[in-house]
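Kindly review this protein for my students:
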Amino acid sequence: MGAAFSRAVTSGTVAAAVAGGVYRTLRARPRPHRRRANYAGRAVDLYAGPAAVLGAAAGTAVLPLPARTRCATVLAVLVAGGCGAYDDLVGADDPRRGFRAHLGALREGEVTSGAVKLFGVGAAGLAAGVLLKERPVDRMLAAVVIAGTAHLVNLVDVRPGAAAATVLALGAPGLPQGGLAAAPIGAVAALVADDLGERTMLGDTGVHALGAALGVAIVAGRGRAGLLAHAAGLAAAAAYGDRISRLVRVLSERRPRRPWGAAGNSAPVSHPCEW
């Protein structure tokens, strides 16, 4: 266990260093057009997203794992992050949310950014599953778990710190075994303070990359029974996604908030990262 924990510490440290370094570099050269209104109308940047993607990928790359496992994780992180970035850039003003809305638009011939994200993250999960598992059933289950975990982290990302807390809670049990979860945990740990301080947000870029990394960590350490259980739970979470997001909003309202000082910043608006 000592060696496994040491590997986890190394992975998490590298992920935190890369994520923090990328984030500070991006903030050193601010671009006004990269800012977005959060749930309370406060202008924040989206720099935590790419920082989380690169941090999680770097933290995975240093782990002494089979090449297929490392490749599966990095692939899932980069593709999920890329699909999220596309939605952050193209779909920010699209009011449609949820699978039904985007699939309905697709049936009418319109390819929304949410549909690109849906199929892109699903394809990344399947590709990672092919690298991680041998049997077709296990590969399909792996795809559901990876894409479903990315979606779950996105579902809770409706208030500052909620997605970060979810990543930490889901990944922490695997740390003593030196698992792949150390990389997303390290990356999010470097960014959570500014996320909670409402100076930045992970955006679709960050939450999908971190969720995909956690999904791969789950898949790599589970057999078919474990994959079935996780897939069923994630399918239920997707079915009740609105309720999960609503619960996060209710719970967040109970924590004390500091005044913004300027008038007009307290009116609630749609969070830009909701499906």
